[in-house]
Specification:
single chain; 394 residues; alpha+beta; Rossmann fold; Dna Ligase, domain 1; D-amino Acid Aminotransferase, Chain A, domain 1; four-stranded parallel sheet; disordered N terminus; binds adenosine monophosphate
C-alpha cells in the first residue's frame, strides 16, 4: 500500500463509524456483496433503485423502491443515511447531484460523468497521458469517415453512452462497412477505436481513500465469452514488469480522478506486452469478486472503508484464486446441481438472489482457491461444469 502525500487537499474528514448508515444507489449483486460486508462490520445499509426484492435489498436493512429521476425520493433517501455510494456507473448525474445536497456522495459524482461516457473517458485518458488504443470521436458522418481513416480497420464502433458487456458495439472490418455499423447503433454519438489483437485482457482494482492512500489486489486475468466476463484468475499470468506497469497506471488514474472508493481499470495486453486502457468503472468489479474469498480485505469491504474514511485494509491474497460466472444459461437444462459443484471443498458458491435465470444474466459465481492460479482456474471451471451433471445423467 502506498502512503498519501501529506499535502493532499481533500484529506479525510471525521470517519463514519460502525453503527452509521450507508446508502447504496443501485441494487444489483455488487450492492449485495457490499451490504454483506457492511453489515458484517456493524453498518446499516439502505438501497435505492427502481427494483423490489433486489439482490441488494435482500441483504440490506431497508430497500427504497423509486425511480432514479424521482429526486424527492432521492433527497429523502440521502437524508436518511450518513454517506451515499453506488454500485453502477450509470446512476444519472442528476440523481447523484440531488443526493449530494444531503449527504456526501463517494466516489464524487464528477467521476460518473467520466465513466459513463466513452468520449469523456477516452479524452480523459488521452489528456492525462494514459495509454489507449487509437480512437476517433463520431458525431457526424464526416467524423465517422475521418475516424475510420485515422484509426484504420479493423476497428470497433462503440456508443458513447449506455453500452456494456459488448452491447452498443459493432465491428468495422473495412471502411465501406462504417456507415452500416454506425446505423446499427442508431447513428448515436460514438467512438471508433482500433481493433486490438490482444494477447490477454487484464484488470486492476484499486482503492483510494480521501487522504490519497492507495491499495490494489494486483493484476487479474480476464477471459470473456460473448463479450461477457466468464473467468477471472489472480494473480494473472503476466510478467512482473507488466504487472508493475498495470498497477502504476491504475494508481495514476485513481489519483488523477481524486477517487474516494474503489475503481476497476480494464486493459488490453498486446502481443508485445504493451498495456492499453479499455475502460474504467468507479465501483467494485466482477473481476474482483474473487477477493471476497481470497483476499484479507475484499473489494466490497474496501469500498466501505474508503467511503467511510476508515483505514484501508490489507489487499494481500491469502491464496491464488479463480472465479467463474454463473449466467442464466446454466439453468438451461434444469436446476443446477449445486452439491456436485461443491464436491471440491475449495469451491465457494455465491448466488445473487435473482429469481429469473435469463440467458446472459449474471445469477451468481463460483470461486476456487488453490496453491497456484492455474490450479484454481482449472478447479473452478471443473466445478461449474459439474453443475449440469445431474441434467446430463438424467
Ligand atoms: P467493452 O464494453 O468496451 O469493455 O468491450 C467488451 C469486450 O469487447 C472487451 O472486453 C473485449 O473483449 C472486446 N473489445 C472491446 N473493444 C475492443 C477493441 N478495441 N479491440 C478488441 N476487442 C475489443
Amino acid at each position: 500500500m502506498s502512503r498519501a502525500r501529506p499535502d493532499e487537499p481533500n484529506a479525510a474528514t471525521a470517519p463514519i463509524l460502525p453503527g452509521a448508515t450507508v446508502g447504496m444507489l443501485g441494487s444489483g449483486q455488487l450492492g449485495r456483496m457490499f451490504a454483506i460486508a457492511a453489515r458484517r462490520m456493524g453498518y446499516r445499509v439502505v438501497t435505492f433503485s427502481p427494483d423490489a426484492d433486489s439482490p441488494t435489498g435482500q441483504c440490506a436493512d431497508r430497500e427504497i423502491v423509486a425511480n432514479y429521476d424521482d429526486l424527492d425520493a432521492v433527497a429523502a433517501f440521502a437524508r436518511s443515511v450518513d454517506v451515499v455510494t453506488y454500485e453502477f456507473e450509470n446512476v444519472p448525474t442528476a440523481t447523484a447531484a440531488a443526493a449530494a445536497r444531503h449527504a456526501p456522495v463517494r466516489p464524487d459524482p464528477s467521476i460518473l460523468s467520466v465513466a459513463q461516457n466513452r468520449i469523456a473517458e477516452k479524452e480523459f485518458f488521452r489528456g492525462a497521458g494514459f495509454p489507449v488504443p487509437p480512437f476517433g470521436v463520431v458525431r457526424t458522418a464526416d467524423d465517422l469517415a475521418a475516424a475510420v481513416a485515422s484509426v484504420g480497420t479493423p476497428a470497433v464502433i462503440k456508443t458513447a453512452t449506455s453500452g456494456y458487456d459488448g452491447k452498443g458495439q459493432a465491428r468495422i472490418a473495412s471502411p465501406d462497412e462504417a456507415p452500416a455499423s454506425w446505423e446499427s447503433i442508431d447513428r448515436s454519438e460514438a467512438v471508433v477505436e482500433a481493433f486490438v489483437d490482444f494477447a490477454a485482457e487484464v484488470s486492476v482494482i484499486v482503492a483510494r481513500d480521501a487522504a490519497g492512500n492507495l491499495a490494489d489486489w494486483g493484476v487479474v486475468g480476464n477471459e470473456h465469452a460473448n463479450h461477457i466476463l466468464d473467468v477471472s484468475t489472480a494473480p494473472a499470468p503476466v510478467s512482473p514488469p507488466v504487472a508493475a506497469e498495470a498497477v502504476r497506471i491504475a494508481h495514476g488514474i485513481a489519483t488523477e480522478l481524486r477517487l474516494v472508493g474503489v475503481l476497476c481499470v480494464e486493459f488490453f495486453l498486446t502481443r508485445d506486452d504493451a498495456l492499453l486502457v479499455n475502460e474504467i468503472a468507479p465501483r467494485p468489479h466482477n473481476s474482483g469478486h474473487l477477493t471476497f474469498d481470497a483476499a484479507v480485505t475484499c473489494q466490497f469491504e474496501q469500498q466501505l472503508r474508503a467511503v467511510c474514511g476508515l483505514p484501508l485494509g490489507s489487499t494481500a491474497l491469502m491464496q491464488p484464486a479463480a472465479m467463474a460466472n454463473l449466467l442464466g444459461d446454466v439453468w438451461d437444462d434444469g436446476p443446477p446441481d449445486w452439491a456436485a459443484a461443491l464436491e471440491d471443498p475449495a469451491v465457494k458458491l455465491h448466488l445473487y438472489g435473482k429469481s429469473q435465470p435469463r440467458p446472459g444474466r449474471k445469477m451468481g459465481h463460483l470461486t476456487a482457491t488453490a496453491p497456484t492460479a492455474a490450479e484454481a482456474r482449472r478447479r473452478v471451471i471443473a466445478a461449474r461444469a459439474r453443475l449440469q451433471r445431474r441434467a446430463e445423467a438424467s
